[in-house]
Design goal:
By secondary structure, the protein is α+β, with helices and mostly antiparallel strands. It is 55% helix and 17% strand. The strands form 3 sheets. It has a 5-stranded antiparallel sheet with strand order 2-1-5-4-3, sandwiched between helices. A hairpin with a 4-residue loop joins β1 and β2.
């Protein structure tokens, strides 16, 4: 069932329920008013008839004649007059005897002074009526034909109004739901036009302050993230194919050249060394891509542990020096503390080692003396690591794109690399709820500032 139909039925059901309750209340109030009014009129008729009898002491036939000329409100009222010791003085319809008075009823009337009776379809009343210094018991009963006829007409009118109103409510609810859901139909229609080839399309936002506006805005934000992901994926595939093609082409060319004719052992050795270098380059590129994929994992999928930063940086230093014995890495503690927690972070040892190895390697690669100075300090809830070099520095454009995947600056074309290391380091730092900033100027070196929350 469509939302439009569901909303219409719910709206009609709720409104119909309220409508029905109101009609029941109207009928109930009308019935109460009729009953109270009839009791009041019945009392007046009973007093009138009792007064005529006690004044004239006439028989029933004479009383009926006198009463017919003096009645005020109700036709065919049965009235009886008794003494307080249950002696009947007058009854104008003893053969019918609607009230059926008895001693218990007389006693109750004497005690309460006035009672109201419901006898089948009849309403009755019993009361103490004082006359000439004596108390008399007067009972009266009658059928409110006029009142019940009005109630029946009211009931028929209310039922007709309910059916007609329900039909009108359903129609109005359907139109209202259709109008209210039109923006959703527009959103669905526009969303159906969005494809991978037209990912730049966006949903219309007519009012940012209502729920549909918030939905469209949220969906547009999702589309923006998807567009960024798609573009990154395209760039990733393009760059990977380009980066892998170069060493593969070089490797193939070297081997083809070696097989064209007989060569000396030295020439074969040079060919194998070149092939090995290209293979190492592809292996390094593959490792970088695998690590980049790991850095995209959610926290729940990564094993976390408490890690001392000094030990972590020593491990990263060892990794760099094993790969590049000519590099120099100096570790400096700027602040002394007896609390090891200030330099202890919670993270993944493997990923953090990769991140800091990449940053240290970047320092050494572009430093004049192939060195990096690593300083450890702490501030509030952060452990702070500064990695500095005295190298060529970066331009503003290079700083803006430093952490872009596969981006390589103008100076990097003279050095070996794939444009993965800095993007990978940033992803890993962010994965650990950290922050990374770079300060650099051309000819003045580069400083990376990494902040990680300590335990």
């Amino acid at each position: 069932m469509k939302i439009r139909t569901t909303l219409t039925l719910k709206y009609t059901g709720v409104t119909a329920t309220v409508f029905l309750i109101c009609m029941i209340l109207i009928y109930w109030v009308s019935e109460r008013t009729r009953s109270n009014t009839f009791f009041h009129d019945l009392k007046s008729e009973a007093i009138t008839k009792a007064h005529l009898f006690l004044n004239n002491r006439a028989d029933a036939a004479t009383m009926q004649s006198i009463y017919t000329n003096n009645k005020q409100f109700i036709n065919e009222v049965e009235v009886a007059v008794y003494t307080t010791d249950f002696r009947m003085l007058y009854h104008d319809a003893i053969q019918n005897d609607i009230v059926k008075e008895n001693r218990e009823m007389i006693r109750q009337i004497l005690q309460k002074k006035e009672i109201e009776l419901h006898i089948g379809k009849y309403q009755g009343i019993g009361m103490v009526y004082p006359f000439n210094g004596k108390d008399y018991i007067v009972t009266a009963a009658a059928y409110d034909g006029y009142g019940y006829q009005n109630l029946e007409e009211l009931q028929n009118t209310l039922c007709l109004l309910f059916v007609a109103g329900l039909s009108m409510l359903f129609g109005a609810g359907y139109l209202l739901a259709r109008t209210s859901l039109k923006p959703i139909r527009d959103i669905v229609s526009e969303a159906e036009r969005i494809t991978a080839s037209e990912i730049s399309r966006r949903l219309p936002v007519k009012n940012r302050n209502d729920e549909l506006g918030e939905l469209s805005t949220t969906f547009n934000s999702l589309l923006e993230r998807l567009e960024v992901s798609f573009n990154a994926q395209k760039m990733f595939v393009s760059n990977v194919s380009h980066e892998m093609r170069t060493p593969l082409a070089a490797l193939t060319a070297e081997l083809d050249l070696a097989l064209q004719k007989e060569r000396t052992p030295e020439q074969y050795r040079d060919t194998l060394n070149n092939a090995l270098r290209d293979a190492h380059r592809m292996a390094k590129l593959t490792d970088g891509l695998l690590n980049l994929a790991k850095a995209d994992y959610s926290k729940e999928r990564i094993k976390m542990q408490e890690i001392r930063l000094d030990e972590l940086l020593l491990d990263a230093r060892s990794v760099i020096l094993r790969a590049h014995p000519s590099y120099k890495v100096e570790l400096i503690f700027e602040q002394e503390s007896d609390d090891d927690r200030l330099i202890t972070v919670r993270g993944n040892l493997y990923l953090l080692t990769i991140a800091f190895s990449n940053l240290i390697e970047n320092n050494c690669k572009y430093a004049a003396n192939q060195s990096s100075v690593v300083q450890i300090s702490f501030w509030k809830e952060w452990a702070v690591i500064r990695l500095s070099d005295n190298g060529v520095g970066m331009s503003e454009t290079e700083k803006q794109h430093l952490f872009t995947l596969f981006y390589r600056g103008e100076k990097e074309h003279t050095t070996e690399g794939h444009g993965i290391g800095m993007a990978l380091a940033q992803k890993i730092i962010h994965l650990h709820d950290g922050r990374i900033n770079v300060h650099s100027a051309e000819g003045k070196g580069t400083t990376f500032i990494v902040e990680l929350p300590h335990v």
